[in-house]
Amino acid sequence: MTKTTENRHVRLFRNGRNQAIRIPRDLELPGEEAVIRREGARLIIEPVKTVPLRELLAQWAPLDESWPEIESLPAEPVDL
């Protein structure tokens, strides 16, 4: 993503009870969700960073739990 220092004028409008802004195509954010926060008089909008499940699981420490043994029961017959 490239940073731009050029100011862009956009129109604010109402969408129901919410105020909204149209984001120009060249400034669109990736994904379906964003995070918004206020810093003084500025609103900062950032895309939500998604983490692949494999990376998320790799960050977790293994569980050190003892699990009870489960008896193997014979499978019940199924009519197909």
From TrEMBL:
User: InterPro entries, per this entry?
Assistant: SpoVT-AbrB_dom, SpoVT-AbrB_sf, VapB_TA_antitoxins
Query: Which GO MF term does the entry hold, naming one?
Result: DNA binding
* Record keywords, A-Z: DNA-binding
Limits of the SpoVT-AbrB domain = 10-50
Q: Report whether DNA-binding shows up as a keyword of the record.
A: yes
PANTHER family for the chain: ANTITOXIN VAPB1, SSL1300 PROTEIN
Family recorded in the similarity comment: Belongs to the VapB family.
Name of the protein described by the UniProt record: Twitching motility protein PilT
Q: Which organism is it from?
A: Caballeronia mineralivorans PML1(12)
